[in-house]
Amino acid sequence: MKALHKALPIAAALLAALFAQNAAAACYVVYSPGQEIIYRAPEPPVDMSRQIHETLPFVAPGATLVFSSDNTGCEITINKLPLMASQGASTATPMARAARADRG
Hints:
Order of helices and strands: HEEHEEH
Strand order of the largest sheet: 3-1-2-4
């Protein structure tokens, strides 16, 4: 019984790692407001650690980001985004978070 209690957390961790790998997108596509593909690549065009509605408008105003685990068509990269976006929009001033005051 003790062996089962030790093996259960390990099995849960392995299972979580398995599902986490499947959650990653294989292709990111950004559509302009006119439904033209302006970005398609295996790398995300925005900082995915933040919410998309916070980052995408600075990269492509009015655009829509679609991502999927299917990489069909993603072999040919399209990047019609402004230069700032391709260098990493997460460093742009409007998206930077303000410093928090010390609460000590």
